[in-house]
Amino acid sequence: SYELTQPPSVSVSPGQTARITCSGDALPKQYAYWYQQKPGQAPVLVIYKDSERPSGIPERFSGSSSGTTVTLTISGVQAEDEADYYCQSADSSGSYVFGTGTKVTVL
Amino acid sequence: QVTLRESGPALVKPTQTLTLTCTFSGFSLSTSGMCVSWVRQPPGKALEWLALIDWDDDKYYSTSLKTRLTISKDTSKNQVVLTMTNMDPVDTATYYCARMPGNLDAFDIWGQGTMVTVSS
Predict the structure, then answer these.
(1) Of B3, B81, B112, B46, whose CA–CA distance to A100 is shortest?
(2) pLDDT at position A6, please?
(3) Is A95's CB within 8 Å of B62's CB?
């Protein structure tokens, strides 16, 4: 089955930049989406179609794509950004898949 | 305001069938391009996509679980129902429903989730 691979954890100091990668063979052909999930809460969409930001999401969240890897970048990280982040995409059969998840720790 | 709310049993026994209902408001599943999906998350683990139904009643299932899942909708009641047969302790998870509008192709609004424990 199709898999999206993320690093288990990323640590960053306040004000610095966090980059979270997501790798998958179909990513050159399918859009990627990113979700933020804080403990005990439902996921929140932070990036759609590789690099678009929903209304209400701070500008410090951005997305990019290059080949089989997509990247979520959080610029000027704040304490409130500490959370789990999941990428998501689709395969050619109409199935959806989530990444393995990355825990972002703000030092 | 768009909201979704999951409901169903908190505890099921192994081999039983789980039935979950997603009741939503603020949008219509009759709108072209609109979809509702189910996603689950075992404790401490990653999100797992389960199933999706669209405005045209097309249905899509996780390849690994498709033999156990059925998704349906009742547009008049603003509800989407998921059934999962032959429940096992590994199916213990929080189950979420989420909206996917066609213009975003993303799960933009989620319910708060409902925790289901499978145990005898």
Answers:
(1) B46
(2) 98
(3) yes
Q: In what order do the strands lie in the sheet with A18-23?
A: A18-23, A69-74, A61-66
Which residue is associated with the tokens 């678009």?
A: A52
The answer to whether the beta carbons of residues B8 and B18 sit under 8 Å apart is yes
Nearest CB to A45 within list B96, B108, B113: B108
Task: Collect all residues with Cβ–Cβ distance below 8 Å to A40 and sequence separation of at least 6.
Answer: none
List the one residue out of B59, B33, B58, B38 whose CA is nearest residue B50: B38
Confidence of residue A92 (pLDDT cuts 50, 70, 90): confident
Residue with tokens 């899942």: B69
φ, ψ for residue B79 (rounded to 5)? -135, 150
> Band of the pLDDT at A43, cuts 50, 70, 90?
very high
Establish if A99 touches chain B: CB-CB under 8 angstroms. yes
B9 within 8 A of B25, measured Cβ to Cβ:
no
